[in-house]
From TrEMBL, chain A:
This is NAD-dependent formate dehydrogenase delta subunit. InterPro entries: Formate_DH_dsu (IPR021074). Pfam families: FdsD. It comes from Rubellimicrobium mesophilum DSM 19309.
Automatic annotation (TrEMBL), chain B:
InterPro entries: 2Fe-2S_ferredoxin-like_sf, 2Fe-2S_ferredoxin-type, 4Fe4S_Fe-S-bd, 4Fe4S_Fe_S_CS, Asp_de-COase-like_dom_sf, Formate_Dh-H_N, Formate_DH_asu, MoPterin_dinucl-bd_dom. Pfam families: Fer2_4 (PF13510), Fer4_7 (PF12838), Molybdop_Fe4S4 (PF04879), Molybdopterin (PF00384), Molydop_binding (PF01568). Residues 265-321 form the 4Fe-4S Mo/W bis-MGD-type domain. This is NAD-dependent formate dehydrogenase alpha subunit. Residues 29-107 form the 2Fe-2S ferredoxin-type domain. Residues 967-977 have a biased composition (Basic and acidic residues). The keyword Plastid does not apply. Keywords: 4Fe-4S, Iron, Iron-sulfur, Metal-binding, Oxidoreductase, Repeat. CDD domains: fer2 (cd00207), MopB_CT_Fdh-Nap-like (cd00508), MopB_Formate-Dh-H (cd02753). GO terms for cellular component: membrane; oxidoreductase complex.
């Protein structure tokens, strides 16, 4: 389980990614954020982010929450 | 005189040392003439002197060299031309069809002897007649023209006037005599040996672009003089590039190392280990001792020029502070214990494996260095992926590179600049953004200045008035002095003008880019909220100025963009890079000489270390670890299964260390504690680890947290390659045996093998072969090819067997160029009543990075302490005077610095910090800065402000939303990437 300080950093990082993709046209923003997280984040970081979402996801932008939802869907 | 050696090649040198006297001409029209009975064909406009050299005929000369246009002052190069009267100077006479030239006749011989006699009559006798222990062309020419005697004699009872003797026999001072100027730490100037050939003055003007030298006095009284009357070299504008020393034919200007050691006996071509320009040098040697470094005329990045760091600041390589024996300790509170290499390596390997046994495969990782060679970096990431068995590899180059990699990757499809440096010769309008080339990339700056003096226009986008904005014979057409943190807004606003005024290159966009995306983008930028008038309040850039700059760039011919850390080391770095790419595509400025998008890389091998797979998510060649086909290539070769999930980045390793899941780190050639933005975070992470292995030249700050110290080797002690900012792969050649016993790549191999790798590399060339075999963009690269060509720019493969100077010529690597919407997002940190000032940081020409190398050289004479620039207005309201020590604090930390009051920073909140004097300065200032761009994963936790005050009084405040790179000259000095 990540320390609270680190969770705050992960939240900032995830939100910053979402901020960029939120400005992009089209309807694929959540997918883009999910793709970015998958491509750049080590599994430990993703797990910590998921755990934070499960604990209420405080501070995360709605786009990050949507992206996490996508990431956690079992690949069809 | 000296042998020319490119190791690995037998027989005749491929690259001739011959000085052709005048520069090559590019004309397609050829002219044939006869010189001393030989027929020779050369391009129109070529000088007779150059044509003669082309035919293998050497004409005596003193005032000409092929790096500069001829001047025609020494009259030694005269020749006879049939059908023409007199004896014209061959250096200034252009060839003509059918011309018949004689370079040696009795008449010419007599004239030349007369000229030489005159020179020699007023020259220190021992230098001409004595043993040739100095670099003296005058002596060489005296021999070449057959000078036997000097007949000038004074009338009975008098003495000839001269510049040579300090006093006559009676002890009367000679008013014409001037003392030697030894103020520069690296070279001396002896006016007595000046023959007023003007070469030094012209080298400083035409090649370097500093205009520091003049000829003082007239006629017999004239001598070269640095700066204004009363100046010496050190107090003049001289930036110690050494160009004048290199061209001086008499030894009037001479390296102190040559004066001390004598002339070199052989030379080996190698590459500078400082900045991303990647200058090539001849390391001129006596045995294993470097006598001097001379910029190599065949170096394609530098064409025979260099800066003070590469040419002179190599003293650190033999500095007494170097650690030459491995050391270990149980805990970081224990003293170090010197041990054998064997013991150190076994200790390190056992500890790492033990940690993995107890905490899992992913509990360890490593950091590659952008100071080390490509081969070394490749081996470190290979060790991590194949031997450690995870992807926990990262590099400090992330900060510098990631936004470029990500931004240009998305827009164009490659993580690198588009041009070679030669491209600048064809540019008409240049944007320099968040970069300070005269200090951080000096040789590129010199070439840019040459082009600007020939009429190209310059647009500077920087909060600070960098030297380029106004320097001798150069004035920027526009300086957009934006507020720090508003890069995206300014770039988007420029695009707004181009789009709304219909200045975009529709044909280019239709052919080369994704038209739908362009339309989206055009709609986005055309929104009135992006107009210069709307953004002016935010960016501080006057709307009219921005409009004029946009128009100039769109309509002024070939437009090129060069950018630096002021763009990338910023929370919206990637977005700015994409904005820059948009601007280039909008104006059709991609895919030919003179245009393009060019990141100026900080350290020598930032490009290479990123190419070589230093990042946790990418294998060599920027291929994601999740790609099965790519992993397959490496798995087959390395005989092991690779992790397909990205590993941890530096900051996340440190976080994981604090949490206890990451326990061991191998750091090659980086001082992460000093160069990382958040020192406390780094220190806490390192302190939490059980095994930190540091491999470096010196006991750096990171080593305070290390359990194993492995001595590193310098660039002079190893073979390999560096890749510069133009994707150019340059050879680094070993000129001396490693003082620590092993080159860095050998140390990595020792550690990997102690962990069971079974590697058997005996030379870095084999590592390059492996890189070529696994990485498509490097498929054609080999040491043999580089030796043959001098250097090669990737991609180099079947399609481009000799490399690729300019990219995206017929189409973008990714197919269609992508326009990406670049929305400005205000930084979280803003100035306010408590923190009203903005801090940016910059570079100093004479110092490099955190200063670990340069502060162990005489470069310290130019910049011995960190300086804080502050606008006169901000200084006055706080009662700060020039030279005061001020305390500077932010939410992340505080420091005290010497104030330098100057209007080159903006009023109402501009502070500019110039590191590094080294020592703790850089670290302290890093504490003040937070930075972060999460797109490619640069982490920062948002540093920011606190008051700025004189120790005795509180004043103002400080904040930093991003970093902009810039420079400074504190009255005399030079200024580092
Ligand atoms: S060393 Fe100084 S004087 Fe000489 S060319 Fe360079 S800048 Fe000019
Ligand atoms: S520091 Fe840069 S500009 Fe200076 S010599 Fe080295 S590579 Fe060239
Ligand atoms: S070399 Fe031609 S005049 Fe000096």
């Amino acid at each position: 389980m990540a320390a609270p300080n680190n969770i705050a950093k992960l939240v900032t990082m995830a939100n910053q990614i979402a901020t960029f993709f939120a400005t992009q046209p089209g309807t694929t923003q959540a997918a883009e954020v999910a793709g970015h997280l998958k491509a750049f984040w080590e599994p430990r970081m993703l797990q910590a982010l998921y755990a934070h979402v499960d604990a209420g996801g405080e501070g995360l932008s709605p786009l990050v929450l949507k992206a996490v939802e996508r990431l956690r869907q079992p690949v069809a | 005189m000296k042998d020319f050696i490119i190791p690995g090649l037998d027989g005749a040198p491929l690259f001739s040392d011959r000085d052709y006297g005048t520069p090559a001409r590019r004309s397609q029209t050829m002219v044939t003439l006869t010189i001393d009975g030989q027929s020779v064909t050369v391009p129109e406009g070529t000088s007779v002197m150059r044509a003669a050299n082309t035919a293998g005929v050497t004409v005596p000369k003193l005032c000409a060299t092929d790096s500069m246009e001829a001047w025609g002052s020494c009259r030694l190069c005269l020749v006879e031309i049939e059908g023409r009267r007199g004896t014209p100077a061959s250096c200034t006479t252009p060839v003509a069809e059918g011309m018949v030239v004689h370079t040696q006749t009795d008449k010419i011989r007599r004239l030349r002897q007369g000229v030489m006699e005159l020179y020699v009559s007023d020259f220190p006798e021992q230098t001409i007649l004595g043993a040739a222990n100095r670099d003296n062309k005058l002596q060489e020419m005296a021999a070449a023209v057959g000078l036997k005697q000097v007949r000038y004699a004074a009338p009975e009872g008098t003495k000839l006037a001269n510049h040579v003797e300090a006093a006559d026999a009676e002890g009367n001072a000679n008013p014409r005599w001037l003392a030697q100027d030894v103020s520069n730490p690296y070279f001396a100037y002896d006016p007595a040996q000046c023959i007023v050939c003007n070469l030094c003055v012209r080298a400083c003007d035409d090649v370097q672009g500093t205009f520091a030298l003049t000829i003082e006095g007239r006629g017999f009284e004239s001598r070269m003089s640095p700066g204004m009357a009363g100046d010496d070299y050190l107090s003049s504008d001289c930036v110690s590039c050494g160009a004048c020393v290199q061209v001086c034919p008499t030894g009037a200007l001479l390296e102190k190392s040559v004066i001390e050691l004598g002339t070199p006996s052989h030379s080996i071509v190698t590459t500078c280990a400082y900045c991303g320009v990647g200058c090539q040098f001849e390391a001129e040697m006596q045995g294993e001792t470097v006598v001097r470094m001379t910029p190599w005329k065949h170096g394609k990045a530098n064409h025979g020029h260099s800066c003070v760091k590469g040419r002179f600041a190599w003293g650190y390589t033999t500095h007494k502070d170097r650690i030459l024996n491995p050391m270990i300790r149980e805990s970081i509170t224990d003293p170090w214990r010197e041990v054998s290499w064997d013991e150190a390596i076994t200790y390190a390997a056992t500890r790492l494996r033990d940690l993995q046994g107890r905490h899992g495969t992913k509990a360890i990782g490593g950091i590659t260095s952008s100071r080390c060679t490509n081969e070394e970096t490749y081996l470190v990431q290979k060790m991590i992926r194949a031997v450690f068995g995870n992807n926990n590899t990262d590099t400090c180059a992330r900060v510098c590179h990631s936004p470029t990699g990500y931004g240009l990757g998305r827009a164009f499809g490659t993580s690198a600049g588009t041009q070679d440096f030669d491209s600048v010769e064809h540019t008409d309008v240049v944007i320099v953004m968040g970069a300070n080339p005269t200090d951080a990339h000096p040789v590129f700056a010199s070439r840019l200045k040459q082009r600007l003096r020939k009429g190209a226009k310059l647009i500077v986008i920087d909060p600070r008035r960098i030297d380029l904005v106004r320097s001798p014979h150069i004035k920027a057409a526009h300086h957009l002095a934006l507020k720090p943190g508003t890069n995206v807004a300014v770039v988007t606003s420029l695009a707004h003008v181009v789009v709304t005024e219909g200045l975009f290159d529709e044909a280019f966009i239709r052919e080369r880019c994704d038209w739908d995306e362009f339309q989206h983008y055009a709609e986005f930028v055309a929104d009135p909220r992006h107009s210069p008038e709307a953004t002016e309040a935010l960016t501080g850039v006057p709307a009219a100025e921005l409009r004029a700059a946009a128009r100039l760039f769109a309509t002024g011919g070939n437009g090129s963009i060069y950018y630096g850390l002021g763009v990338t080391e910023h929370s919206q770095g990637s977005t700015t890079v994409m904005g820059i790419a948009n601007l280039a595509m909008l104006t059709g400025n991609i895919g030919r000489p003179g245009v393009g998008v060019n990141p100026l890389r900080g350290q020598n091998n930032v490009q290479g270390s990123c190419d070589m797979g230093s990042f946790p998510h990418e294998l060599p060649g920027y291929r994601h670890v999740s790609q099965d086909a790519t992993r397959d290539v490496f798995e087959k070769l390395w005989g092991t299964v690779l992790d397909k999930e990205p590993g941890l980045r530096i900051n996340n390793m440190l976080d994981a260390a604090v949490e206890g899941t990451f326990r061991g780190l191998y750091v090659q050639g980086e001082d992460i504690l000093q160069s990382d933005p958040d020192t406390r975070h780094v220190a806490a992470g390192l302190a939490a680890m059980d095994c930190v292995i540091v491999q470096d030249l010196f006991l750096n700050e990171t080593a305070n947290y290390a359990h194993v110290f492995l001595p590193g080797s310098t660039f002079l002690e190893k073979d390999g390659t560096f890749t510069n900012a133009e994707r150019r792969i340059n050879r680094v050649r070993k000129v001396m045996t490693p003082k620590n016993g092993y080159a860095d790549w050998e140390v990595t191999q020792l550690l990997a093998n102690a962990m069971g790798a079974g590697w058997t590399y005996t030379h870095p060339a084999q590592v390059m072969d492996e890189i070529a075999a696994t990485t498509p963009t490097f498929a054609g690269v080999s040491f043999d090819l580089i030796d043959e060509k001098g250097s090669v720019q990737w991609p180099c493969n079947e399609l481009h067997p000799e490399g690729t100077p300019i990219m995206h010529v017929d189409g973008f690597v990714r197919g269609k160029g992508r326009f990406i919407v670049t929305e400005y997002v205000a930084t979280d940190e803003k100035t306010g009543p408590r923190f009203p000032l903005l801090l940016t940081t910059g570079r100093i020409l004479s110092q490099y990075n955190v200063g670990a190398q340069t502060r162990r050289t005489s470069n310290m004479v130019w910049h011995d302490q960190d300086v804080l620039e502050i606008h006169p207005h901000d200084a006055e309201v706080r009662g700060i005077k020039d030279g005061d020590r001020v305390r500077l604090a932010s939410r992340s930390g505080e420091t005290s610095l010497r104030a330098f009051v100057t209007d080159r920073v903006s009023p109402a909140g501009g502070l500019h910090h110039l590191p590094p004097s080294g020592h703790a300065g850089q670290r302290r200032h890093h504490r003040l800065l937070g930075l972060g761009d999460q797109l490619p994963g640069i982490q920062g936790d948002g540093g920011a402000g606190a008051p700025l005050q004189r120790p005795d009084r509180l004043a103002g405040g400080l904040h930093q939303p991003g970093r902009a790179i810039s420079s400074h000259r504190d009255g005399r000095g030079v200024t580092c990437p």
